[in-house]
């Protein structure tokens, strides 16, 4: 039932059919003023039509917010996550998950600025995004009212949505009248596709689903060699050219696309309890992930590196589940950021037919000592004879266990 106390609501608005229907539904159901917010996260779409559609649906010009968040997105969300080498269930680079807290934060900021008492989103009741949006909203504004139309309205079919749009004179593109073959979410880090033709995990993803990468089989026969420069865990340059965070990721996306890099067919465990199959394309992120691990391999101490690997699954799960603004994520981030103090240097990579291959890494802070690892004699810091005592001490408990087994005849 609509909350009659809601006077003004800020809607996360894409300008598409679904959020346009939500906009009109909020106006007719809650009888409230609607403020629209459209975020440019590098999804590759013109945002002017979103403004035009909002005006057409009766939104005042001063209530239409469109913001370019690409630099903030990469600098303050993507890069901190990549310092952790975060990958949910070992493979998913969290492209959708990491965008939601930024969008929700902006919704709350606009709500505060406009005096709105509610925010709204278009996430469905079966997905993870509803959780991510709302956990962030409640963390930043505990008394906010969140309106989730897909959990409230009685529009249960595509036909009902189309009928509602026609009733309220919402323009419907011809290709929107039927069921979409799959749904797409995109930003500067990735594009994800789910639903319909992708729901059977036994069936290969059709070629027409891919939008960010060419097929590895169609990639050039000649490899592409690049060098990524890092400072304190963040990528700052490609082939010696200093670039802003968003510009750097966009260039890596182009390189990854042209070499067929970054495709992932995944069956994942949603936070809400079900399994889902999705197809993810993260071309630049896949390159960046490999390069970051490579520069860490020579600049991080073993203990620090292994501790990071141990906490990574928990950190990744926090982001996937929507807990970006939780104290535990912030505590882990502080530890991760401390580990990046000397993660500075260059990584050389070969990009070839879907693969990212590290072929060189160097740093002024490298812990790699060629004198120590060489098979040739002459290393002063390492005496081969010391290994005997080291091995015996580490074998002590194993020998004790072995003696007990022998004594008991086991």
UniProtKB/TrEMBL annotation:
<feature type="binding site">
    <location>
        <position position="97"/>
    </location>
    <ligand>
        <name>L-citrulline</name>
    </ligand>
</feature>
<dbReference type="Pfam" id="PF00764">
    <property type="entry name" value="Arginosuc_synth"/>
</dbReference>
<feature type="binding site">
    <location>
        <position position="192"/>
    </location>
    <ligand>
        <name>L-citrulline</name>
    </ligand>
</feature>
<keyword id="KW-0067">ATP-binding</keyword>
<feature type="binding site">
    <location>
        <begin position="12"/>
        <end position="20"/>
    </location>
    <ligand>
        <name>ATP</name>
    </ligand>
</feature>
<feature type="binding site">
    <location>
        <position position="129"/>
    </location>
    <ligand>
        <name>L-aspartate</name>
    </ligand>
</feature>
<feature type="binding site">
    <location>
        <position position="39"/>
    </location>
    <ligand>
        <name>ATP</name>
    </ligand>
</feature>
<feature type="binding site">
    <location>
        <position position="280"/>
    </location>
    <ligand>
        <name>L-citrulline</name>
    </ligand>
</feature>
<dbReference type="InterPro" id="IPR018223">
    <property type="entry name" value="Arginosuc_synth_CS"/>
</dbReference>
<keyword id="KW-0436">Ligase</keyword>
<comment type="subunit">
    <text>Homotetramer.</text>
</comment>
<dbReference type="InterPro" id="IPR001518">
    <property type="entry name" value="Arginosuc_synth"/>
</dbReference>
<keyword id="KW-0028">Amino-acid biosynthesis</keyword>
<feature type="binding site">
    <location>
        <position position="132"/>
    </location>
    <ligand>
        <name>L-citrulline</name>
    </ligand>
</feature>
<keyword id="KW-0547">Nucleotide-binding</keyword>
<feature type="binding site">
    <location>
        <position position="92"/>
    </location>
    <ligand>
        <name>L-citrulline</name>
    </ligand>
</feature>
<dbReference type="InterPro" id="IPR048267">
    <property type="entry name" value="Arginosuc_syn_N"/>
</dbReference>
<feature type="binding site">
    <location>
        <position position="183"/>
    </location>
    <ligand>
        <name>L-citrulline</name>
    </ligand>
</feature>
<feature type="domain" description="Arginosuccinate synthase C-terminal">
    <location>
        <begin position="182"/>
        <end position="399"/>
    </location>
</feature>
<keyword id="KW-0055">Arginine biosynthesis</keyword>
<feature type="binding site">
    <location>
        <position position="124"/>
    </location>
    <ligand>
        <name>L-aspartate</name>
    </ligand>
</feature>
<dbReference type="Pfam" id="PF20979">
    <property type="entry name" value="Arginosuc_syn_C"/>
</dbReference>
<feature type="binding site">
    <location>
        <position position="268"/>
    </location>
    <ligand>
        <name>L-citrulline</name>
    </ligand>
</feature>
<dbReference type="InterPro" id="IPR014729">
    <property type="entry name" value="Rossmann-like_a/b/a_fold"/>
</dbReference>
<feature type="binding site">
    <location>
        <position position="128"/>
    </location>
    <ligand>
        <name>L-citrulline</name>
    </ligand>
</feature>
<dbReference type="InterPro" id="IPR024074">
    <property type="entry name" value="AS_cat/multimer_dom_body"/>
</dbReference>
<dbReference type="InterPro" id="IPR048268">
    <property type="entry name" value="Arginosuc_syn_C"/>
</dbReference>
<comment type="pathway">
    <text>Amino-acid biosynthesis; L-arginine biosynthesis; L-arginine from L-ornithine and carbamoyl phosphate: step 2/3.</text>
</comment>
<comment type="similarity">
    <text>Belongs to the argininosuccinate synthase family. Type 1 subfamily.</text>
</comment>
<keyword id="KW-0963">Cytoplasm</keyword>
<feature type="domain" description="Arginosuccinate synthase-like N-terminal">
    <location>
        <begin position="8"/>
        <end position="171"/>
    </location>
</feature>
<feature type="binding site">
    <location>
        <position position="122"/>
    </location>
    <ligand>
        <name>ATP</name>
    </ligand>
</feature>
<feature type="binding site">
    <location>
        <position position="128"/>
    </location>
    <ligand>
        <name>L-aspartate</name>
    </ligand>
</feature>
<dbReference type="InterPro" id="IPR023434">
    <property type="entry name" value="Arginosuc_synth_type_1_subfam"/>
</dbReference>
<protein>
    <recommendedName>
        <fullName>Argininosuccinate synthase</fullName>
        <ecNumber>6.3.4.5</ecNumber>
    </recommendedName>
</protein>
């Amino acid at each position: 039932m609509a909350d009659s106390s809601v006077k003004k609501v800020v809607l996360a608005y894409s300008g598409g059919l679904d959020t346009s229907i939500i906009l009109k539904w909020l106006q007719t159901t809650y009888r409230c003023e609607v403020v629209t917010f459209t975020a440019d996260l590098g999804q590759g779409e013109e945002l002017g039509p979103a403004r035009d559609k909002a005006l057409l649906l009766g939104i005042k010009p001063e209530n239409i917010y469109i913001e370019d968040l690409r630099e903030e997105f990469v600098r303050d969300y993507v890069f901190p996550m990549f310092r952790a080498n975060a990958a949910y269930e070992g493979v998913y680079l969290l492209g959708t998950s990491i965008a939601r807290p930024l969008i929700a934060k902006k919704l709350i900021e606009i709500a505060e600025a406009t005096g709105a008492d509610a925010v709204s989103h278009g996430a469905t009741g079966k997905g993870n995004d509803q959780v991510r949006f709302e956990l962030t909203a409640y963390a930043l504004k505990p008394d906010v009212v969140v309106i989730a139309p897909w959990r409230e309205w009685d529009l249960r079919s595509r036909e009902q949505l189309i009928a509602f749009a026609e009733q309220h004179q919402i323009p419907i593109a011809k290709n929107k009248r039927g069921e979409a073959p799959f749904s797409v979410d995109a930003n500067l880090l990735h594009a994800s596709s789910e639903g319909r033709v992708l729901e059977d995990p036994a069936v290969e993803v059709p070629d027409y689903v891919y939008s960010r990468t060419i097929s590895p089989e169609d990639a050039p026969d000649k490899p592409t060699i690049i060098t990524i420069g890092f400072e304190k865990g963040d990528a700052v340059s490609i082939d010696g050219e200093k670039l802003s965070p968003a510009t750097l990721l966009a260039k890596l996306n182009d390189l990854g696309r042209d070499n067929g890099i970054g495709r992932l067919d995944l069956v994942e465990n949603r936070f809400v309890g079900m399994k889902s199959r999705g197809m993810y394309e993260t071309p630049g992120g896949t390159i960046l992930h490999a390069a970051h691990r490579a520069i860490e391999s020579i600049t991080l101490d073993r203990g620090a590196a292994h501790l990071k690997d141990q906490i990574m699954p928990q950190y990744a799960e926090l982001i996937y589940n929507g807990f970006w603004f939780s104290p535990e994520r912030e505590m882990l981030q502080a530890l991760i950021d401390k580990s990046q103090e000397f993660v500075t240097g260059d990584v050389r990579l070969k990009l070839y037919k879907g693969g990212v291959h590290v072929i060189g890494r160097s740093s002024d802070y490298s812990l790699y000592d060629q004198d120590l690892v060489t098979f040739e004699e002459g290393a002063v810091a390492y005496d081969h004879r010391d290994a005997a005592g080291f091995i015996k001490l580490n074998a002590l408990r194993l020998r004790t266990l072995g003696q007990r087994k022998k004594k008991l005849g086991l």
